[in-house]
Each structure stands twice: as structure tokens, then as C-alpha cells.
Amino acid sequence: MRNLKNRFLGYVLRDRRTPNKNREHVGQNLMLLAIFLFFIFIINFAIIIGADTRFGHNLSKEASEVYQQEVTVQAKRGTIYDRNGVALAEDSTTYSVYAIISKSYVSSTGEKLYVKKSQYNKVAEILNEQLGIDKDKILEQLSVRLFYYVIYIYLLVAIL
After folding, report:
1. CA of 51: how far to CAs of 18, 40, 46, 61, in Å?
2. How distant, in Å, are the alpha carbons of 40, 135, 136 from that of 121?
3. 157 pLDDT above the threshold of 50
4. Is the pTM of this model over 0.90?
5. pLDDT band at residue 151 using 50, 70 and 90 as cut-offs
6. In CA terms, which of 5, 81, 118, 136 is 20 to 30 Å from 103?
7. Considering the chain, what percentage of its residues have pLDDT values greater than 90?
8. Lowest mean pLDDT among 37-41, 82-86, 152-156
9. Which residues contact 113 (CB under 8 A, 6 or more apart)?
């Protein structure tokens, strides 16, 4: 029994170091552990960048699903009132409809893109049917030679 005890104490005390040597040894082990973990993270990062997948998940696809989405936001605007409660401005949707009557409006191939005199009645008929504008008023505006184009602006409320 004494022999076993002496053997054990001899084994334990054989490589006994001073506290400074122990601290140095622990510091070296921690540095090696930090370097090992650093390389593990670098390798993992390189694999993620190269393969673009991790654990069977497509990372680019899932990132785009999280960060990119299409949402239509309807603008809600109110009416502006003056101090007496009279509406100064109300929210409404407008459309611009125009007919170009200048003969200089042609495509690069020379195709005529303007409204010709022979088409005035057809344009007046379409605008009358779709927007309810008086045909005579449209024909009168199309016949004026001073304009480059004629614009008709109507509120959506007026159209419906």
C-alpha cells in the first residue's frame, strides 16, 4: 500500500511546475484553442459563401424571401379644410389624355404618329364614348393649328 502511495505521489509530483510556468502553459493552450476556433469559423464561412447552402437550405432564396417583398400601399390622404371648414383640396385620381396634332411628330422610321385630319372624327367619337366629352368641343380643339397637342384632363370621379 505504501508502495502504491509512493508511486502515485511520484507520478503527480514528477512534472511539478512553478505557478508562472503553469500560467504560461494555460495561456499557450488558450491561444491554440482560439486559433483552432478561428479557423473553424473561417472554413465554415468559406463553405457558406461557396455553396450558398447550409443544412439543406438555399440561403440566397431564403434571404430574398425575408428581405424582399412586394407590398402595395394605398395612399390615404385627407381633405384640406380652411378655418371655416370649407374644403380647399380633396384627394382624387386624375388621368391625362392627349392627342398630338403636330405633323413633326414621327417615328425614327418616318411613320406618322400624330392624329391626321382624317382621324379627327374617330378621336372625337372615342373621347365622347369613353370620357363623355362633347364631340364638337373636341373637334374645335383639334382644328386649332396653333397647338402642338391637345390635353384633356378629367377626374376619375367625373369619368365614373
Report:
1. 50, 16, 8, 13
2. 79, 8, 10
3. no
4. no
5. low
6. 136
7. 12
8. 152-156
9. 100, 105, 106, 107
Long-range contacts of 115-120 (CB under 8 A, 24+ apart): 115/142
The sign of the dihedral angle between the CA atoms of 29, 32, 38, 42 is negative
Q: In the predicted model, is pLDDT for residue 103 greater than 90?
A: no
Taking CA atoms, 54 is separated from 39, 43, 66, 136, in Å, by 18, 13, 16, 71
All three cell numbers of 110: 418616318
Q: Which residues of 61-83 are buried (b: 16+ CB within 10 A; e: fewer)?
A: eeeeeeeeeeeeeeeeeeeeeee
CA 72 to chain centre: 12
Q: Which three cell numbers stand for residue 151?
A: 390635353
CB 76 within 8 A of CB 67: no
108, three cell numbers = 425614327
* Helix intervals (H) in 1-160: 2-14, 19-51, 59-67, 120-131, 135-143, 156-159
What is the residue-averaged pLDDT of the chain? 81
Taking residues 54-61, what's their average pLDDT? 84
